Amino acid sequence: MKPETIQVERRNLVAIVTLNRPEKLNPLARETIAALSETFKSFENDAELRAVILTGAGDRAFSAGTDLSELIHVPANEARTVADLGGQLCNQIEQSQVPVIAAINGIAAGGGCELALACHLRLATPNARFSLPETKLGIIPGYGGSQRMTRELGRARTLELILTAGSISAEDALRFGLINRVVAASELLSTAEELAREIAQLAPLAIRACLEAVVVGTELPLAEGLALEAKLFASLFATEDMREGTRAFLEKRKPKFKGR
Question: How many CA atoms does the CB half-sphere of 23 hold within 13 Å?
């Protein structure tokens, strides 16, 4: 029986998605990309879901990127399709209505780095390394890496990273603001779960609005971003959660949010 390329586990309000080919450093084969895309699509209709953790099996890699054994056989007239499939997956993750936390347990290279960049929050082990080494293969990042990395690191650092096919250590990634925390390998998943549970206790519609305000708003001119924030702020006054949260604060009790 062929092993599943990803595993999905539900722990109450949190889903854990694991890339599951550790012996190959969790490559992004076409079937893996399709499985991830289908999984994140299923999350769209999950009213109880509050956060997703994305990680890799094993202790060597989050994902070493696109499966080169497949890539080498892609004809020129199908290359755009490959980029579009990977790019659409990264867009799905970035546009998720619940926060996606990357628990990066080692190498995040090429498409694997691009996958991590699409996540909203990133935790990494001390041995994690981030790279976009596609120039070694005669190509460039194709899943959004050149654009998302530039928005995270700025033009100069991104160009140096891509043009030299270099890598960034976990320590430097934290210093540059590319990741949120460096966490011991033995504590990576538990720390990600703790962060996910912390988010899950808050008002889900407000969390969704925060994601939209930041993800969409930062791509807009400042005046339009401010207008989007004001619109989202006002829209939450029509929700039960806003009234419940405000009452709970005034009554000095824990709120019971229902996502409506």
Answer: 2
